[in-house]
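Shipment paperwork, digital attachment
Item: protein structure file
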Amino acid sequence: MAHITIPAAEAILDKEFTVLNKGFVRLVDYMGGDERIVQSARVSYGTGTKTVREDKGLINYLMKNLHTSPFEQVILTFHAKMPIFVARQWIRHRTARLNEISGRYSVMADEFYIPAKEDIRHQSTTNKQGRGEEVPPQLQKKVIEVLKRDQVSVYANYEEMIKDDVARELARINLPLSLYTQWYWQIDLHNLFHFLRLRMDHHAQKEIQVYGEVMAMMAKAVAPMAYEAFEEHILYGVRFSRGEVTAIREILAGKENPLKGKALEEFNQKITSKQDGS
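Attachment content:
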């Protein structure tokens, strides 16, 4: 099969989609799509059937049963600009290839992330690494003023060292996590789905969730059947532990749920949480 061109992907190719106050994501290139997935899956037993319905059924089967290698045949390349603290979470996904701007070589731009006031919240009492209740307006204002003041100060010092011809690799070291960086990031569709499952989850930090949402839109444009199967079986699916399966059996048998405490809380959350993607 020759190079696959997908109209929906071509329509957004190289377009800049704004994320946060100064960030963006661009889909700069892609290779393959739904056709490539079914072609690679069928290579072991010939051409087979090729109707849209049967292609969709095959992709759904592959996703449901975790036959992941055909999805690795699809490659997406992104150009993204994000705050450094987002990049440090992002880079935990080590199954991609990337090239990031170097502060040893380039002078870093005076661009910093400032959260929206409604995103400034207290520390969560239930999630040790997340946000909880809203803070009063006066505290929102105070936080934003502190962030802006520190950013202006530290960048002025950075600029002064650059003007004094201090080595860039040293001048940069006090720059904060709110500074924007950017990179080219290339990943196959299977591992992109893994990234999206974790980073679009409500437990993830909001600032990386919004990048995931934009990239999900792009992945859907490149491989819509595969993305639908991902939503059905992975993104909005639920995994149960052995103990939770035992609990389900007990409940169906009319018995009391044997789970207690935190285990029961997590089980109920899985059962009652919205899983339809709406």
